[in-house]
Amino acid sequence: MKSEVSGAQMEALVWLGPSQMALRHEPIPTLGDNEVLIHVGAVGICGSELSGYLGHNSLRFPPLVMGHEAAGTIVAGTGQLADGSDVHVGQRVTFNPLITCGTCDRCQAGLINLCRNRKLLSAHRAGAFAQYVSVPADLCWHLPANISFVAGSLSEPLACAVHAVGLTDIDNNSSVLILGAGPIGLCCIAAAKARGVKTILISDISDQRLSIAREWGATHTINAKQQDTVATTLAAVPTGVSVVVDAVGTSHVRNQAIKAVVPGGTVVLMGLHEDETTIPTNYIIRQEITLVGSFCYSREDFSTAVDMISRGLVVPSHDWLIERPLSQGQASFEELIAGKSEYTKIVLIP
Ligand SMILES: [Zn+2]
Ligand SMILES: [Zn+2]
């Protein structure tokens, strides 16, 4: 956290080392050029931060304020928002937490998510588990007055899903299987629906999560504890699904993804659970299966996600999301890591 200066303090949830977090008084962040100070209205806990909390993530070093799925109100700063409009104090915004350089070859090629100098707000600099966060103005997207900060905080995971689905040639004749009904899996349902996909299968080991997935628009659900995911998929779509999205990332699930997709189909890998996996390479060759990794999002993906939220295509519901004060942050991390939470998403309100 680089926040020297200037008298005024805020409450922040500070990660202090493996499994240690504390609510502390920290200086309010100072602003660089073309940055804004956002009073945080809502900030979600992301699965990627659970490994960070445990100390398993090579990007995150204590002491650190995490939190990159957020929305709030601009209280200071200058510059232009992502849409090119001028910053005004009082604007309600959500923000893209991926800071990219704009000058490297990957940025120049339009692949900003692969920027060679990319920095994630909440890992390389302080994030939003705090009353205030500073953000480059041009990463902020305007939120309509009728959209809650909690809904706005879902823009980031939804943008990940929009990107993943966008890496395929999915359309209204496609069928898709999503492996994992956590927040990203649910967002993939919304992203697939937005592309016109009518047959959406999803697997998980929790019946509760699967029933929520049906509310989001999944047409078929598979309990992977009780059913064979590949056989059940082939029974529902005998020709095989055209696209599989793996939102888990274990060896077992990665292999299921490869076996469930139609010959010539595409498997999108998003889940980061295991670093290395043995996969049936000869089968992939003979079936001409495309494997594609999906990481973060482009500006367009983020814009699409904010637009979908603004149009009410993803609406927070207390069936799967709970809001809690920042003071319950550490307990919420512990609950999610233990797999004991009855909520798919926990959003903290500073
Ligand atoms: Zn996230
Ligand atoms: Zn770059």
Protein architecture, described:
The chain is α/β, with parallel strands linked by helices and 350 residues long. It folds into 2 domains: 9-154 and 316-349, Medium-chain alcohol dehydrogenases, catalytic domain (Quinone Oxidoreductase, Chain A, domain 1, Alpha-Beta Complex); 160-293, NAD(P)-binding Rossmann-like Domain (Rossmann fold), CATH 3.40.50.720. The protein is 27% helix and 27% strand. The chain is built from 11 helices and 17 strands. It has helices spanning 47-54, 105-108, 149-152, 155-166, 183-194, 207-216, 229-236, 251-260, 281-286, 299-310, 329-337, and strands at 9-17, 20-27, 35-44, 69-77, 92-95, 98-99, 119-120, 132-136, 140-142, 175-179, 199-204, 220-223, 241-246, 261-269, 290-293, 321-325, 345-349. The strands form 4 sheets. Strands 3, 4, 5, 8, 9, 16 and 17 form a 7-stranded mixed beta sheet that branches. A 6-stranded parallel beta sheet has the order 12-11-10-13-14-15, with helices on both faces. Helix 5 (183-194) links the parallel strand 10 and strand 11 (199-204). Helix 4 packs across helix 10 (299-310) and helix 7 (229-236) packs parallel to helix 8 (251-260). The protein starts with 8 loop residues before the first strand and ends with a strand. Residues 1-5 have low confidence and may be disordered. The structure holds zinc ion (2 copies). The site of one zinc ion (ZN) has 8 residues, from helix 2.
